[in-house]
Amino acid sequence: YLCFICKGEEKAEVSAVGQRIVKALEGRLPEGQSSRYLLPVLSNVISLSPEALTEEQTNVVSKKMADWLRYASTQQGVAQPSGGFFSNPRTRQPGPVTEVDGAIATDFFTVLSLGQHYTEDQWLNMQTFSMLRKWLLCYGGKETNTPNSGDKSQTDRSIVSVVSTSSTSSRLLPPMERLREKAFEYCQRLIEQSNRQALKKADGDLQKACLIEAVTIMDIICKQDSSYVYRAASFLKILHGRITGDATYARALLPIAQFFLNHGEMAAVDSDAIYKHLFTDIPAQLFHNSSLAFEFVLFCRDNSQLFTETSSIFRHSFPNLFKFLAWNSPPLIAEFVDILPFLLDAGTAIEIFHLLLDLPCLTAALDVQMRSSTLPSSERAACDPAVKPAACLEAFRNPLYRSAFQYLLRVGSVSEDFQERLIPLRQLLGSLASSPRVMQCADTVPVLLELFFSVVAEFADASLINQLVVLVLQRSDQLYEIPAFKDDVHRVLSSQLVMLCKLRPALIVELSKELLEFSGTVSNIQNKEPIFTHVVWAIGEYMSVSYDKRCTVEQINRFFETLEAVLFEVTQVRPQISVPNYAPRAITVLMTALTKLAARSQDLIPRVSLFLSKMRTFVQSPAVTSVYCEEDREEILTRATELMNLLKMPSVAQFVFTPSVDVARTRFQKEVNDTLPSALRIVTRLLEPAPGFVPG
User: Fold this and answer.
1) Can you give the residue ranges of the AP-5 complex subunit zeta-1 C-terminal TPR domain (predicted)?
2) pLDDT for residue 13
3) Tens-place pLDDT, residues 166-190
């Protein structure tokens, strides 16, 4: 019935159900009926419509919940007679409930108290705890969090809450305050019970689940009433020290860290040791635990802003955090998209850039680390450094590769640059490139790279932009050997390179040495064509005094000569030698860049015009027609003709390709650049006579 209401979103009916339940709980139920079947329905009611209950009704339920939590029987329930012929009417008197370690319980009943059978109030106790968090979140925040100065002080309140549960002062508290008090005591008892050695694995698992829930509820109570913070902080500090060394309690460390993140300042507690253990040990040891990885990353996502404001450990630990993504991608990609901006600043950008490019390599290294840990101790001995390792496992134990593995598997940020040492390790780990886990990780890198550059663009200064451009050129041929991965990364890096150049055109002059070296290497056209093409485009676009007054004719000539030599090499047709199949786009961009440079240093116009005039011979040669399709040849020839026609009017070419300082960044010039092919076609039509035209 309630599911039907949920689908129909009939809140009035939901409210009516809630009110009937409260009325039933408030009164005495008829013989044979039980309240415990009503609490799950009430839990659904407040999930669907929290406003279904009035304040008076929530007070009634809060009072009941406080009693159920604290005053459940400590004797086991009586087994219900089967009613058979051989049933014995003399049932044995029930004994006391026990703890998970078999000891007789000496304190009040909780969900961790064990028995063969349970009484009605014990069932209500367990169900109350199961819905306690939801109830507090829905209705616990409606009262004042701290007492008035004219009433009791916070210290007095803390003392009052320690007093025996049967005290008059406790019963005189408002219902929600009393519920918080009993809930806090209940959570303390659960945490104490979690220290017992469970006899059964299922009970041990229940201990851990209850511990997590108890700490979470204590955090909620402290948010609603700060007088509990001091007791909770000292209590949880002791708990943290007790479970830190036990990996099976790793999930419980998250709500503890959340508590100190929320209340550490008020409790005057130095929480850095808690955060340091959380971010240092857990990802490094338990990155392969998928459920923990998801919870850990969600915790980081939800608290990214708080961490960046309160602790440097979060940003410092990003190499460790990325182990979760490297091993558990793509399920965690959405969460890392949210986290990455908070990890980035001027100090971490370069290292994170390298880490993103090496993410598949990190996955492979983690795989090797896990396999190595399962080897017998006799096989873990260090290998002879004089013998080159033939496999990844051997390299992991080889002293020559140890520093590279340690850097790749580091737990925190480091200032030292290890990229050169990673080159041989990258090659060795190439044997794992076909691993499904590695390939899945590789698929996440392009998305994160695009996000990386969009975030860095918001705060990067001139120095950082220049560093990134140089690194794009260097790392473009230092990638993990997965062909599809390399193609995707080259595509992203090429587009982001243009973005960096648009942000700071002056880098073309400042990085002329690096750009000349990259654009002058013919092999880059085939190995990384997208990056090469965009570098050449940026040179042609921004090597101009309009963008940087330091640009000289000598620099323009130097770039022209370099690109001219590359284009000559690309279009050179040698007898009896097959023509390499270079991308037509690279050839057209080279021609356009040379034309732009010639328009800014007009002594070069005759040279580029002569070169362009030879392109018809190039595209019509048999060696070229056997390699390029007709459409590609037409594209090359058309662009050469258009550029050559434009250079016949040097003043027009200079205006189109070399705007004055006043219009270089205007909307008009942007539109000219965006529609350059159209402009070239218009000039071509103006210069070429129409068919059938006879000059008079």
Assistant:
1) 335-686
2) 84
3) 445 666 789 999 999 999 999 999 9
- Cα torsion 445, 447, 449, 455: sign: negative
User: Structure tokens of 638?
Assistant: 């058309």
240/74 Cα distance (integer angstroms): 29
Query: Is the Cβ–Cβ distance between 430 and 417 less than 8 Å?
Result: no
Residue 320 CA to residue 281 CA, distance in Å, equals 9
Nearest to 271 by CA among 321, 318, 236: 236
Between the alpha carbon of residue 62 and those of residues 292, 579, 663, the distances in Å are 33, 84, 72
Report d(CA 619, CA 626) in Å as an integer.
10
To the nearest 10°, report the CA torsion of 493, 497, 503, 508: 160
β partners of residue 104: 98
527-562: string of b/e by CB count within 10 Å (b at 16+)?
Answer: ebbbbbbbbbbbbbbbbbbbbbeebeeebbeebbbb
What distance in Å separates the CA atoms of residue 550 and residue 293, rounded to the nearest whole number?
Answer: 52
How is the chain split among helix, strand and coil, in percent rounded to 5? 70, 0, 30
Radius of gyration of the chain (CA): 36
Rounded CA-CA distance 279/277 in Å is: 6
* Predicted TM-score of the model (pTM): 0.86
CB-based contact 352:344 (threshold 8 Å): yes
What are the strands, taking DSSP E only, across 172-319? none
Q: Which residues pair with 75 in a beta bridge?
A: 96
Residue of 445, 446, 404, 407 whose CA lies nearest to 428: 404
Give the pLDDT band of residue 165 (cuts 50, 70, 90).
very low
Instruction: Say yes or no to pLDDT of 689 above 90.
Output: no
> pLDDT tens, 104-143?
999 999 999 999 999 999 999 999 999 999 999 999 875 4
Query: Is residue 680 pLDDT above 70, yes or no?
Result: no
- Going by pLDDT thresholds of 50, 70 and 90, the confidence category of residue 672 is very low
Q: In the predicted model, what is the mean pLDDT of residues 46-73?
A: 92
Tell me: the pLDDT tens digits for 350-361? Answer: 999 999 999 999
User: Which DSSP string do the residues of 250-270 spell out, in sequence order?
Assistant: HHHHHHHHHHHHHHTTTTT--
What pLDDT does 418 receive? 81
Per-residue pLDDT for 82 more than 50? Answer: yes
Rounded-to-integer distance, Cα 446 and Cα 422, Å: 21
Task: Report phi then psi at 104, rounded to 5.
Answer: -70, 130
Whether the CB-CB separation of 334 and 446 falls below 8 Å is answered with: no
Q: For residue 597, what are the contacts with CB-CB under 8 A and spacing of at least 6?
A: 539, 540, 543, 556, 559, 560, 563, 604
DSSP string, 64-121: HHHHHHH---SBPPPPPP---TT--SSPPPP-B-B-TTSPBP-S---TT-B-SS--HH
Chain segment 188-225, per-residue pLDDT in tens: 999 999 999 999 999 999 999 999 999 999 999 999 99
Q: Is 635 exposed, middle or buried (0-12, 13-18, 19+ CB in 10 A)?
A: middle
Greatest alpha-carbon pair distance for the chain in Å reads 130
Structural domain spans, the chain: 313-374+385-504, 527-685
